[in-house]
């Protein structure tokens, strides 16, 4: 009788184990690309279990198969410079209009829409770098993580640390409070240290600093050093908006983790970035984007706008070429925030692929900037197809190792192993 009871309990335990066994989903595709090595696995059978990648091979494992057809599997894309809570028209005072015409609820609801567009374009993770009001990006991150809304994983920065008036073009004295809504204004090392502490308390995953805001408004070397010191004590990375050569040099000397934009980087600063493993996040767009954008200007100003954009584009292209040659880590960033007729936010984020290709980056180099290099420089996982990694996966039409346009032909997106709806 005792033996029979033991046998019965064994059956019950085994049954419970079978019921509790995690579901395994298997994605079947024509091929998969491992960005870091460039290896192509064909055919590709990728299994997912408990929201993680269980295996990737050219032979079929056990599990419920999802047939994806003639597509290429790659890790989910990372945009290291996004602004999901911000949309700007092409006017000098657009930031004032954004800050005064919409309340926090308006911006949050619009951000949900923009986040969905980004996710469906293949971006499963974004680093949101400011212009989100008072910690709107933290709220968006929480809502997405809790499953209340659909969107990419968000790394929040809260308000960017900035010189007086932030990036507002101009503000009358009675309206300076608008700057405090969007920026943590820092004038001294002591204020900078306090601002970093406040940002961390509000939930920042990273710190952004506006090193040069134009019109002779800049963060000095001592204040930059204080920002980096306090952030690194908390093991948080610092992204530095630096457009001029002098600002970038100052930020690199302070030990920031990435230079955002860096349009005027010189070779000496690029060499220091390579030596210190400081990433460049080139927020570049192809000439076709700028030509289309110049159509927003009055007819009499369009020719001058096209000429100005052409000079700017040529300069930024040469800067990226020199950065690649200097072996600076290149991390993908779109800085998408413009209101245009060239597609939704997800499509705007994809335009940058073509700019990198115009500068001579190969499709595989661009894919690395979008995935493995971005993850390594940002200190996150989920940008590999290796077993144990988070199952953030994009299925692309065509072969992205041969055709950069394939990166924009997204057929399916999986975040945490769950297929993203196209509704």
Automatic annotation (TrEMBL):
- Tell me the Pfam families matching this sequence: Amidohydro_1
Task: Give residue ranges for domain Amidohydrolase-related.
Answer: 72-420
The protein's UniProt keywords, in alphabetical order, are: Hydrolase
Upper taxonomic lineage: Bacteria, Pseudomonadati, Myxococcota, Myxococcia, Myxococcales
Q: Which GO terms describe its molecular function?
A: hydrolase activity, acting on carbon-nitrogen (but not peptide) bonds
Per its UniProt record, what InterPro entries does this chain match?
Answer: Amidohydro-rel, Metal-dep_hydrolase_composite, Metal_Hydrolase, Metallo-dep_Hydrolase, OTAase-like
Q: What is this protein called?
A: Amidohydrolase family protein
